[in-house]
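tool=predict chain=A
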Amino acid sequence: MTPLLRKLLGMNWILLASMLLLAVFGVVAVYSATYFKTDDYWHKQAAWVALGVGVFICTSLVDYRWIKWASLPLYLVSVVLVVLTYTSLGEEHGGAKCWLRLPGIGTFQPSQLCVISGVGVVALFLSHFRKLHPALKLSLIGAIVGGPMVLILKQPDFGMTMVWVPVILAMVFLGGIPKRYLLALLIFGLGIALPLAMNFGLKDYQRKRIVTFFDPEIDPKGSGWAINQSMIAIGSGGFAGKGFKAPNTQVEQGFLPGTTVHTDYIFSAVGEQWGFLGACLLIGLFALLLLSCLFTAFHAPDQFGLLITVGFSAQIFFHVYQNIGMTIALMPITGLPLPLISYGGTFVLMVMFALGLVNSVWVHRRVLPI
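tool=predict ok
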């Protein structure tokens, strides 16, 4: 048996199957949320998924211990791309100038690449500097992630800034940082960093979203409109939903914002059309995907493999929790997409690349260290 065939047959098939099922579910969900307006969205989503599967397979076949040396250059490039969003190349969507248009390539969101590469850099640092004092470790990690977080917050993209927090906490927890340091970090974040971000890093409409989160009825026809309509849509789906492409829905009648129903509020469309059963199926597939990632982390042959797997798992979990939570008023509205389900080419490719690295950890778990 050739090494290539051995790698192909040795993939984490549960991870691959759950990823593909979620991606297909996403294409169908995007189609059902936009078919009455245009066919462009689901056609493009299907094309990005096909390209993403190729990225996943290629990444899975390359030993992740070789890829890790590309983490720092990729991280530096991603930070430069985030900086470029502040120039004339940057484009504003939804009130945040977080998109970058490159001539001949198109638009993409560099902050998503920044998080992926940031996970690699932090994992590389923690796995190679184990004997440093915990306080010095945290300070250096703060320097690594602090700059991108400030740049992303000033776009302002509060959602992508929030993603860094659970990702880095999960990684430093498993990276040997004592719990007392993590507790001090949480106290600092909640007591100092969060209030500063709320008062100086957000625009007025973002503050209104947070206020509306605590009281959706405070501005029912303004900042509270979307969340109220989202809960109406999900609640009206009942147990089995109104049916695929059902007429006279909140989505079809435009009560949910037409510009974001296939991105931020895709779960609302799923809940309305497929009901409680469809929502449980979707959440169950995400649970299966995350469990397969954690199973891979348990069998990781080295600390770098463990840390990147846990970091990517934390990122996907937070995206799922935040996106679903904001559609049912459990979390404030931030605009984070639902992995593999929401429309968006950049994020589909980034998620499948990250999952390819996780699968590479599994495929190469018995390979001798480089």
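The two ends are 22 Å apart (CA to CA). Residues 12-362 form one domain.
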